[in-house]
Amino acid sequence: MTAAPRAVTNLLGEFMKIASVIVVLVCTTLVVDATTVLARDIFVDNLSGNDRLTGISNDFNDFVGGPVKSIRRALILARAGDVIILKNNNTPYYEPVILNGVRHNGLATAPLIIQGNGATISGFSSLPSNAWFPVGYDLWKVTPAKKGWYQLVHNDKAVPEIRVPAGVGELPEIPPGHWCAWKGAVYYRANPQEDVQTESFGLSREDMGISLHRVRNVRIENLVVQHFRIDGINAHDGCRNVELVNVVSQENGRAGLVAAGTSDLVFANGKLLGNRDYSLLVTERAAAIVNESELSTPAVMAEE
Known about the structure:
single chain, Pectate Lyase C-like, nine-stranded parallel β-sheet, 23 strands
């Protein structure tokens, strides 16, 4: 073969390599763009929605596409890049929010988003009148089924608590309008003329408000999380690129926010207020970046 044909052959080979690279780049771009185009809004309305609908429309005249009723159903329907939009009806969503990396990851360019619009999710459960047992002058007792963590709520507010150190042998003095946890029960001293059996009292029932397990590329915004038995928000076991923006986590039984395992997250423009033990608890090798936020107590780092 002469030098000229060999040079032509080499040139053609280089051209084919460049063309292959271009084809790969074009295909990659098309895949990303297609995923972005397929991202949907999923609407949730806890008063008027219906979990038999698809949630892809907020129009009740669309008998198939109207809003779903529960966040749980929206998460079953959600795909990477979708936006779950909650309607704020000034009535809490009484359900936990559980995201698992097996099915709830977003994309780096299109995170899975939960847009709360200022709505509240609550772990509150009303106490029936026969749950209270009188044990003294204006002193009442209720025995929760779940032990270890408690939060007593009255008229949508956490009741002031008297903390009892472990091992105390006698019930401490409880001022009117306060409660304490002692030997697996909750004791409450009523205010004068207060009838606990007819008032709106309740205990935190659900353990976690928002539970994040090995999720990637998730953003939760404009949401209030309150009155859960243990933590308002718990991110554990390797969560990555998780953003909590304008989120309030308050009056939960242990912590407002927990970052655990090897998770890392950003908490921005939010509030962690009135939680029993911790505003923010960071354990093991986790990391939490807090920006422009209000905490009732300083963050705590601990090994668990």
